[in-house]
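Students often ask what a holo structure prediction actually looks like on paper. The answer is less mysterious than it sounds. You provide the chain, you provide the ligand, and the output is a string of discrete structure tokens encoding the 3D arrangement of the protein together with NAP.
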Amino acid sequence: MRYDVIIVGAGPAGLAAAIYSARGGLTTAVFERAMVGGQITVTEDVENYPGFEEPISGFELTAKMQAQAERFGAVFIEEEITAMGMEGLCKVIEAGGKYYRAKSVIICTGAHPRRMNVPGEERLTGRGVSYCATCDGAFYRDKVVAVVGGGDSAIEEAMFLTRFAKKVIIIHRRDELRAQKIIQERAFRNPKIEFIWDTVVQKIHGETRIEKLELVNRKTTDITMLPVDGFFIYIGILPSNQLLESRINLDSAGFVYTDEFMHTNIPGIYAAGDIRYTPLRQVVTATSDGAIAAWSAEKWIIENEDAFEVDCVEQ
Ligand code: NAP
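The corresponding structure tokens follow.
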């Protein structure tokens, strides 16, 4: 099977790339190993994507993007890509035991939650430890939950949890939040939210379920125990870059370097969205990246049309 463009990952970046690529008349396949929509599907309310006066759920927003891409002829393939051949003009993707050829590849694999790597975290995940308030928040009606982190995600998700929990305790390792001011102010005004500053979680205790958090104050080194019913971890994101061999240039944290055309260092391979080294990771920036990447891929394909006729034919 051969496509003009193969898009890896169906979050907002991949979906926007698919809309632009398919609408531009390029045969387009989007590979997604899990759920179309990516990380944003676990966000209850998206209220800063232009065009939606009222908040829209991440799930609904990305479902609309998928329908739009399909209307232009993009094909969605639910398979995990296991290998990607980046050599030469024609790229070869292996997924579900089949090989797919492409004139261009757009990597939109996104990012995933950072783990704390403290004792108890892995064992108690799904037993009171969670990385998704939208998924698990409703289990904590009238309970006490803690959230770790001081960025936009931690504070927004803590506010979301106040819909259910009677108390939400935010534990942050510094005495100042990283989150945008407007988000901070809402949290400071919320009577259900309390803060524990300058503190890290060093262990999660519990037999069959979470029972308490072992906290260390970084200034005083005092150790305290905090009983909780649930614990939500929002300490940043890591790039989903497992597929990218050492030939793609990455920053020290593993995000892909591109230029303003979304080119990676390998001709014909582009990256868009959260996987990219970028100052802002939002739906709006991801979709913008996706559009630019698809436009660049189209130009690349047109410029190399003759060579593709020889090197990248349907097999
Ligand atoms: P983030 O901005 O990187 O914040 C991570 C937070 O976790 C920081 O406060 C950091 O502390 C803390 N942290 C990191 N490692 C830790 C550890 N090992 N133990 C304890 N705390 C730790 O990540 P994010 O909140 O997931 O946001 C990711 C991106 O998405 C950001 O660009 C953000 O702006 C964006 N986002 C935007 C919105 C929105 O605009 N509505 C919503 C969600 C996310 P320090 O502050 O001390 O470094």
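Residues 48, 116, 148-154, 156, 173-174, 178, 200, 234-237, 281-282 surround NAP (CB under 6 Å).
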